[in-house]
Amino acid sequence: MKEHVPHPDLPPPITNVGVIGWLRTKLFSTWLNAGFTLLAAYLIYLTIPPLIDWAFIKADWFGDSREACTSGGACWVFVNVRFDQFMYGLYPAEEYWRINLAFGLLVLLAIPLFIERFHHKGILAAVILFIYPIVAYYLFAGGSFGLEAIDTSRWGGLTLTLVLSGVGIVASLPIGIVLALGRRSKMPIVKSVCVVFIEFWRGVPLITVLFMVSVMLPLFLPEGSHFDKLLRAMIGIVLFQSAYMAEVVRGGLAAIPKGQYEAAEALGLNYWKSIGLIILPQALKLVIPGIVNTFIALFKDTTLVLIIGLFDLLGMVQTAITDSNWLGFSIEGYIFAALIFWIFCFGMSRYSQSLERKLHTGHAR
Amino acid sequence: MADEQQQESTPAQAALWRRPAFRAVVFQALLVLALCMVGYYLFTNTLHNLEERGISTGFGFLSLEAGFGILQSLIEYSETHTYGRTFFVGLLNTILVSGLGIILATLIGFVMGVARLSRNWLIARIATVYIETFRNIPLLLQIMFWYFAVLQPLPRPKQSLSVGESFFLNNRGFYLPSPVLEEGFWLVMVAIAVAIVTVVVLARWAHRRQEATGQQFHTVYVSLGILIGLPLLAFLAMGMPLSWDYPALKGFNFKGGMVIIPELAALLMALSIYTGAFIAEAVRSGILAVSHGQTEAAYSLGLRPGVTLRLVIIPQALRVIIPQLTSQYLNLTKNSSLATAIGYPDLVAVFAGTTLNQTGQAVEVIAMTMAVYLTISLAISLFMNWYNKRKQLVER
């Protein structure tokens, strides 16, 4: 009896693999899909080449006045000339090193946080949260240690955006934790006070909060107490942000299994110890992505301070494009600002997504 | 919170102090006391400061004459009207832009959310780029971009861009013909109402018949026929009682027709594009949350893809989408207050802006403005909760 020898497998049809297969399944699977593909390709053809032409090929990059812009494309000279102002606001140029030093220090301090094998993350985080802001304040504001004092009205640009969002997030975290704990408290008055506080700030737009602090804070405080504009904006942002932070933290608290609370009680820990030693360390780890997300929202929202007369990055761009020497370059200005904001926000959102994936494994329930 | 530290440092000497119930009472009493003290302190300061500045408290200012004009008003308004009226003008403008924004953002969001999941690579890529771009750029920047960089540099009315001498686009706004209802149009209205009622009744009847006998009825085509045919018939029968009022250049500006002012257009574009990106993400996560087994089960029951989507996927996805949608609607409404940056006369710009500056009644004006937003927030979230509950009951 002859042994049965099967034919060797045929290769897949040429229309199902390779470039043709990919095109067939991903772009032209049905008539409708093919139509969509062609329409989309046409739209891209209409928009992208002229855009690239305008932004890169025909653009002018270097120079020091609008006369340098002759090619008919984008005038990046404008951004180039104003770059320092966009970054540092009206801060005196010879003192830029102070801002650079402060941010450089922050980056150096923060790098180990992203290294897996570094074990003292808690201590380092505490240094960044509590000691670094004091150092940064003295560097920015000056007035001691032989540094020239620089009024907050001269702070601006991207620096101000970062300062506002940084202060907003760092200061609102502890308040948010207290509010979140209060909202989960069994004491009715504490709970209702926290609920009202949180829902109030979450229910009103940030712009009304900023209006409120800028016109009403001087009324609330005793006569003669002077607050500068920046501090007022910060107070408004922190109040507003702490309500959102409270909700993020509350989400983390709710995700901790009941057994953890009961185990802490069974060990005889009192409320603050069980919260501080058992619940919060776990809950805060869970809500890091949420905190990053609120930070992104806050980072974008800090642009609102331009409405009450502070000059953050967008504010500086806005003043630059109304400068009579540079009229007509608003698109370039806005695109530059948008690019900066986009890089920060997109980077952070990617980071928070990867963090979410990493943290998810340990807490799958 | 100072009282908290007080509580912690309270020595636990007597057994009474160790009782949680007693501690709770003391702690809450301290909290109330502290809040009252802070409140009293702020209140007296405010009264004193107001007196010092010669500002009288109370809502009397609402009946004074405002004396400033407003760019766009849905109700009759002129400079001789009161400050109270400016409140309502601003409020209606806020509601207008939020309402239109919610509709547009929902449309954009659903289309883009579905597109991002499309099997068509190019379409999915375009949707991804749209979402990731506009989500990560501050809304205020987008509003200012559309207003200052796109709409303001448009030509002046004399050099308007026009389509067929009836649509005009210039830096004063977008002008389009407005319909004028003539005598006899009431019959068309009646026909529309009758058509809607008929369609509802028809749908119910078709559903009952299908439940009872399994026979299907082409509800969609018949309903479309009724909805279009009946009003059209009435329209023709009355001799086409509708005409158009075309905008025309008179002097330096256009007269007649409808106009969408550039402030409204910029705000609306920015709000709906920005919020649309967030809604798209909500829609995507909702659809992804429905497990693939559901689709397969539906297919194995013999349902066609369209029916599967309508009867199996969407009802389950909505459960995830609706809470997120709610918060996006709330955000959009609150974000419409950014109107003040480009001068669209919404509540914040008109009332908390001009009226506040003219009268100096900061406390009253800010309180009224905040109360409006709180009410809107509360109303939307109550409605959505109700809807959510109903949806979930139907599910089970």
UniProtKB/TrEMBL annotation, chain A:
GO terms for cellular component: ATP-binding cassette (ABC) transporter complex. Keywords: Amino-acid transport, Cell membrane, Membrane, Transmembrane, Transmembrane helix, Transport. InterPro entries: AA_ABC_transptr_permease_3TM, ArtM/GltK/GlnP/TcyL/YhdX-like, MetI-like, MetI-like_sf. Pfam families: BPD_transp_1. PROSITE patterns: ABC_TM1. It is found in: Cell inner membrane; Cell membrane. Its main location: membrane. It is a multi-pass membrane protein. The keyword DNA-binding does not apply. GO terms for molecular function: transmembrane transporter activity. NCBIfam families: HEQRo_perm_3TM. This is Amino acid ABC transporter permease. It comes from Solemya velesiana gill symbiont.
From TrEMBL, chain B:
It comes from the Bacteria. It holds the Pfam family BPD_transp_1. Its main location: membrane. It is a multi-pass membrane protein. GO terms for molecular function: transmembrane transporter activity. It is found in: Cell inner membrane; Cell membrane. SUPFAM superfamilies: MetI-like. Residues 91-384 form the ABC transmembrane type-1 domain. GO terms for biological process: amino acid transport. The chain crosses the membrane at residues 20-43, 87-115, 136-154, 184-206, 218-239, 259-280, 365-387. Keywords: Amino-acid transport, Cell membrane, Membrane, Transmembrane, Transmembrane helix, Transport. GO terms for cellular component: ATP-binding cassette (ABC) transporter complex. Belongs to the binding-protein-dependent transport system permease family. HisMQ subfamily. This is Amino acid ABC transporter permease.
